[in-house]
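in:
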């Protein structure tokens, strides 16, 4: 791993450091639901402050429609960061460099400010490299160094992730460094048996990682909404369950390729079928051969794997030496349909080797279901970035920091 990383001999004394993080936290009426992504970059931030740096923290939040999209303000993040740090984090308004730096040029060492949602300025995510570079140049004259510690955005060419680090002295923060080390371990010489657990909505979202991992894994366990396309490919009726008709033939090919590579694919043997997509919907457990035989008939939809499947999947996970999990087994946000995800997550805590929760909804699920984060080997902060890393895709935000596969 050739990342430029933070080292003890790095001189930050009196310097202004721009710390690009991923504080894209879920909000409910302006209240942070899960602060995991904030806590994840705290070690890097406190290290920089201990080094006597003045730190300007920048992040995105959601997909704002302009600078007046107030419900996507980072003010709640600044407030929570103040609580976690035990010192005031000043919130700075304005989305362009000229406005921001007129307010923070006098920031003192060991002090922190957070700038407003970087995506309030459309140049941050512009498809035009010249526009992103224009944004970065407005900031570069005021920054002594850039530290990228938002793993959830390193797979995107965005001004604060790619152009700004290219114009300044730049390093990966401790979180990004750890994420890369863990994912690198999954792609080089993982201990065996190596099991990948995939859930979530769509086969198409996971196709790249499936294709990339087939030659190197022993087991693939499949749950979540994506399983119904695979079941349909095997000839099962799935009612009104989530289905990608255009991926059925691709799913057949995947199952054939897995068999050719001696990879065992585990699909559910039973499903929790519901009358509607609702937390209090009437539901029943049905075998995959009879998913349309219940009270709702062909109008039923699957919202979780069944208890028999959850038990079988858990046995595979517990007996593995390396496990990577991306995607819940069902609609974990609804208590009635969280059982499969909860059993699977519990099994991951019992893996004797390396267990990796691949960010996104999987990370949200383990927190929402009350698991101790320390019980897992690693919880990634970047679901999409994790998948693209494992697929072997280019990751611009890492490459600009010197990383090569």
């Amino acid at each position: 791993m050739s990342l430029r990383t933070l080292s003890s001999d790095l001189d930050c004394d009196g310097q202004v450091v721009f710390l690009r993080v991923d504080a894209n936290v879920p909000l409910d009426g302006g209240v942070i639901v899960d602060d995991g992504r904030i806590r994840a970059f705290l070690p890097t931030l406190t290290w920089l402050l201990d080094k006597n740096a003045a730190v300007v923290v920048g992040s995105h939040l959601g997909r704002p429609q302009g600078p007046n999209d107030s419900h996507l303000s980072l003010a709640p993040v600044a407030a929570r960061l103040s609580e976690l740090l035990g010192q005031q984090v000043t919130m700075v308004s304005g989305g362009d460099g000229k406005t921001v730096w007129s307010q923070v040029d006098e920031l003192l060492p060991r002090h922190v400010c957070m700038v407003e949602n970087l995506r309030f300025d459309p140049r941050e995510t512009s498809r035009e490299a010249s526009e992103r570079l224009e944004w970065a140049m407005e900031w570069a004259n005021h920054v002594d160094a850039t530290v990228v510690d938002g793993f959830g955005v390193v797979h995107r060419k965005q001004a604060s992730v790619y152009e700004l680090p290219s114009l300044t002295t730049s390093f990966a923060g401790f979180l990004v460094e750890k994420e890369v080390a863990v994912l690198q371990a999954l792609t080089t010489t993982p201990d065996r048996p190596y099991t990948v657990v995939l859930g979530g909505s769509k086969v198409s979202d996971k196709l790249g990682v499936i294709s990339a991992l087939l030659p190197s894994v022993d087991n693939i366990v499949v749950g979540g909404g994506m399983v119904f396309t695979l079941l349909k490919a095997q000839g099962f009726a799935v009612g009104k369950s989530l289905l990608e008709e255009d991926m059925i033939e691709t799913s057949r090919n995947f199952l054939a390729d897995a068999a050719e590579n001696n990879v065992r694919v585990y699909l559910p043997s039973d499903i929790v079928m519901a009358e509607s997509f609702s937390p209090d919907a009437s539901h029943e457990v049905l075998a995959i051969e009879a998913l349309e035989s219940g009270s709702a008939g062909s109008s039923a939809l699957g919202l979780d794997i069944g208890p028999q499947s959850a038990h079988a999947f858990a046995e595979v996970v517990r007996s593995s030496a390396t496990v990577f999990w991306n995607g819940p087994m069902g609609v974990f946000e609804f208590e009635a349909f969280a059982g499969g995800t909860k059993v699977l997550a519990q099994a991951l805590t019992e893996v004797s080797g390396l267990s990796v929760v691949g960010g996104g909804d999987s990370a949200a699920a383990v927190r929402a279901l009350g698991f101790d984060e320390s019980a897992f080997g690693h919880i990634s902060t970047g679901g999409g970035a994790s998948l693209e890393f494992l697929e072997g895709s280019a990751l611009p935000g890492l490459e600009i920091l010197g990383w090569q596969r």
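note: The first helix runs from residue 36 to 50.
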